[in-house]
Design a protein that fits this description.
There is one protein chain. This protein is α+β, with helices and mostly antiparallel strands and 840 residues long. The chain has four domains: 122 residues, Orthogonal Prism (Agglutinin, subunit A); 134 residues, no CATH class; 151 residues, no CATH class; 239 residues, Orthogonal Bundle (Transferase(Phosphotransferase), domain 1), CATH 1.10.510. It contains 15 helices and 45 strands. A hairpin with an 8-residue loop joins strand 4 and strand 5. The C terminus is likely disordered.
Length: 840
């Protein structure tokens, strides 16, 4: 019996050992050593489980490839070994380490044909101590001892992964490239490649076959790569460095809960994809080329491109004309432009300053020197067509660049909406081509040629008649205009808001404004509010600007215009829109602002298709920025300002989606110790006005706090308060937020577009802060100082107890009245009838 039991134990042990061996054969590891292999039934998986290596068939393809993919998403391949040599259907294949230490992919009958190899040679490379490892970054490496002798991140992929280097050798020009697939389900090398400039210029290019297809702006030391690449949030960072003779670019991210990849897709565009690890959906966050102006040399030599809302416009630089006007009239700009007058190189040449330009291709670096030295260096060389000076602080950096021959791939106003950062460019022209303003303006406006022809064809008699009429009109209206102008100047110089030393605004003629906007062309119209229409325009002093024109039908008049003029001129903050100048000409009252390419927050937040671009990180950045802007107005500016019209459409976004508060036509100034004011003319926007303002005409800092609370809840929910009234969910957005929070369902209030990307603790804190801000009684609302602290502190930290906010039911008047009977007498009753409520 004992002997029988011994046989049983022996057989069990053998079976167990066999099972262990069998399991190990099928198990996935992260390494490959001599004697081991990757087959159709075995893969490598990185230690952290992020990536897998093995064989796959893309789409409906009959061919198979060896590749690396996301372990949780086998449809997202980041690297393919045998791109040029697909394995035919039913082909047996194996990946192993050869005797010489190279990774070898074998196929064919009996796996005797070498399909692909790492092809490493020399340096005493031997296979005995070699090992292949799949890292958690997605990089497949081959190590000889402690040295990495080969890695897939140096190979021919269509993806630029975090930690991967896009590099070029400055001496040899050797570089690694990102190559597109030939099609979505075909990994074979396509027509497009992406890499660093082989000439050593710090810039990126996409090539279509061997011709440039897209070019980034030149990288300048002292500026971060966020000027050139998207701001993805989530602790993403970019790096440009030099190591020996190699220049390289790389990127990464500190937040391990997300994944990022840049892909060169088959049609030649670079796209940035981002997703949460727990999500199956990749979101496209950025793309180049994004506009027609970003295609390489779209406007030919000495031609510059400017993007309008619907199309791109090519024009010649000042001093140049189309090489073939006939071709340009047909929309063929490839021939570019030629000089109107040849350069003499005899002292009659001048440099024309062009602001906010994408610098042209084929630059030559002259080293570190002063601006004057840089200009002289170009002027002394007759072949020098242009120079640029990068105002950087690093002494060892190159800050003087010259260009010789034709200037190609120019884009004007490159910082406005395009992926790059514009700088001044100084182009050499004949002195006679420059006007009195220094030649800063472009001469190729679409209508200028036509205007010149019309003007030339007008008879001398007609011109005399027109001039006589203008002079006559000016003569008879001179006293009235002088009186108006004197009143205006006096009002600007006698109030503490507009002292002669306080306002330093450029005043433009109406002619300049008409020219800048193409006579207020509808194609340049950005939008319209209660003040009037806003147009996009170009002024040589600033580049692209937003021009706000007071409508003659507007309920706001000279008082509101002067109010905005005087207020914004004295306010300087990163989260407030900058006022650049003005125009006052008879009945025309115009303000000139910085141009913000993303326009207003409401165009994204309340659009079902665009709101996906507002991830949680971006929305919280906007919330914090607006809060800081209001805090500055209330506490830290030289004036204590109550905005009175804070809403999503008055929050403008720059190219980095950072917010700037605009529209100060309704704003009021308080004394340093003043806490409240009253009016019988209530202005503002339906849905953002607090109850004490509606019912009693009282406004204070807490009025802006209420509006901010509404805006905060709108940003979190993606819903517009003024469109929410009397829905089935609740009478108001505030009521819906209150009901969800009170019942412990705060996360149901969140916009589904950010439900997966948001920080749940932080977003609940934002909802609580929003509800605190919209309390019915002003004294129950926090100050903006307290709001900023609550948003920046630990979201688990305690905050004041919440009460039912204003406007939570259809009986809103009763709520307001009850709240005020319970409040202190610090807010007096104002029984004046409110006659005006201006929705804007």
């Amino acid at each position: 019996m004992a002997g029988d039991m011994g046989w049983v134990y022996c057989i069990s042990f053998v079976l167990l050992a066999f099972l262990c061996i069998f399991c190990n054969l099928g198990a996935s590891t992260d390494s490959l050593r001599r004697g081991e292999s990757v087959t159709l039934n075995r893969t490598l998986v990185s230690t952290g489980g992020n990536f897998a290596l093995g064989f796959f068939r893309p789409g409906n393809s009959s061919s198979s490839f060896l590749g690396i993919w996301y372990n949780t998403d086998n449809n997202t391949v980041i690297w393919v070994a045998n791109r040029d040599s697909p394995l035919p259907q039913d082909s047996e294949a194996v990946l192993k380490l050869g005797d010489d230490g190279n990774l070898v992919l074998l196929g064919g009958r009996g796996n005797t044909n070498t399909i692909w190899s790492t092809n490493i040679s020399g340096g005493g490379f031997a296979g005995n101590s070699s090992v292949a490892l799949l890292l958690d970054s997605g990089d497949l490496i081959v190590k000889q001892g402690e040295s990495v002798v080969w890695e897939s991140f140096d190979g021919d992929s269509d993806a630029l992964m975090p930690g991967m280097r896009l590099k070029v050798n400055k001496k040899t020009g050797k570089r690694n490239l990102i190559r597109s697939w030939i099609g979505r389900d075909d990994p074979r090398p396509g027509k497009f490649s992406w890499g660093m400039d082989p000439k050593g210029s710090p810039q990126f290019l996409i090539w279509k076959e061997d011709k440039p297809y897209y070019r980034s702006n030149l990288y300048q030391d002292g500026f971060t790569y966020s000027r050139y690449f998207p701001t993805l949030g989530y602790s993403a960072y970019y790096s440009f460095a030099t190591e020996n003779d190699d220049e390289y670019f790389s990127y990464g991210y500190a937040d391990t809960s997300i994944q990022i990849r840049f892909i060169l897709i088959p049609d030649g565009h670079i796209q940035a994809f981002l997703r949460q690890k727990k999500s199956d959906n990749w979101l496209i966050r950025w793309q180049v080329p994004a506009t027609d102006c970003e295609f390489y040399a779209r406007c030919g030599a000495f031609g510059t491109c400017e993007q309008n809302d619907s199309d791109s416009v090519c024009c010649c630089l000042t001093g140049f004309k189309p090489k073939s006007q006939k071709d340009w009239d047909k929309g063929d700009y490839g021939g570019g432009c030629v000089r109107r007058k040849d350069l003499q190189c005899d002292g009659n040449d001048r440099f024309m300053r062009l602001p906010r330009m994408k610098w042209p291709d084929h630059s030559t670096s002259l080293g570190n020197m002063t601006f004057e030295e840089c200009e002289i260096a170009c002027s002394r060389n007759c072949s020098c067509s242009a120079f640029a000076y990068a105002n950087i602080s690093t002494d060892s950096s190159v800050n003087c660049l010259n260009w010789f021959g034709d200037l190609v791939d120019l884009t004007h106003n490159y910082s406005a909406g395009l992926n790059g950062f514009g700088q001044d460019l100084y182009v050499r022209v004949h002195a006679s081509e420059l006007d009195g303003s220094g030649g800063n303006e472009h001469s190729a406006r679409k209508n200028k040629g036509l205007v010149a022809i019309i003007v030339a064809s007008v008879s001398a008699f007609f011109l005399v008649a027109v001039l006589a009429y203008i002079l006559n009109r000016k003569y008879f209206r001179r006293k009235d205009w002088v009186s108006k102008k004197s009143t205006l100047v006096n009002s600007m110089s006698t109030t503490p808001l507009a002292g002669k030393d306080d306002i330093e605004l450029l005043q433009f003629s109406l002619f300049r404004i008409i020219d800048a906007t193409d006579n207020f062309d509808e194609a340049n119209k950005l939008g319209e509010g209660g003040f009037g229409p806003v147009y996009k325009g170009f002024l040589s002093e600033f580049g692209m600007v937003a021009i706000k024109r007071l409508s003659k039908r507007s309920s706001q008049g000279l008082e509101e215009f002067m109010n905005e003029l005087k207020l914004i001129a004295k306010l300087q903050h990163t989260n407030l829109v900058s006022l650049l100048g003005c125009c006052i000409d008879d009945e025309e009252k115009i303000l000139i602002y910085e141009y913000l390419p993303k326009r207003s927050l409401d165009t994204f937040l309340f659009d079902e298709f665009k709101k996906d671009s507002l991830d949680w990180s971006t929305r919280f950045q906007i919330i914090e920025g607006v809060a800081q802007g209001i805090l500055y107005l209330h506490k830290y500016s030289r004036l204590k300002v109550i905005h009175r019209d804070l809403k999503a459409s008055n929050i403008l976004l720059d190219e980095g989606m950072k917010p700037k508060i605009s529209d100060f036509g309704m704003a009021r100034i308080f004394g340093i110790d003043q806490t409240q004011a009253e009016t019988n003319h209530v202005v503002g926007t339906y849905g953002y006005i607090p109850p004490e303002y509606v019912m009693q005409g009282q406004f204070s800092e807490k009025s802006d706090v209420f509006s901010f609370g509404v805006l905060l809840l709108e940003i979190v929910s993606g819903q517009k308060n003024s469109n929410f009234f009397q829905t089935k969910l609740s009478f108001s957005l505030l009521g819906w937020a209150w009901e969800n929070w009170k019942e412990g369902r705060a996360l149901e209030f969140i916009d589904p577009a950010i439900s997966e990307s948001c920080d749940s603790l932080k977003v609940v804190r934002c909802i609580e802060v929003g509800l605190l801000c919209v309390q019915a009684i002003p004294t129950d609302r926090p100050t903006m100082t307290e709001v900023v602290l609550m948003l920046s502190n630990d979201p688990a930290a305690p905050i004041p107890a919440l009460k039912e906010p204003a406007f939570v039911s259809s009986n809103s008047n009763a709520i307001v009245s009850t709240s005020y009977r319970e409040s202190s007498d610090s807010y007096s009753r104002n029984n004046v009838t409110i006659s005006v409520l201006n929705p804007r």
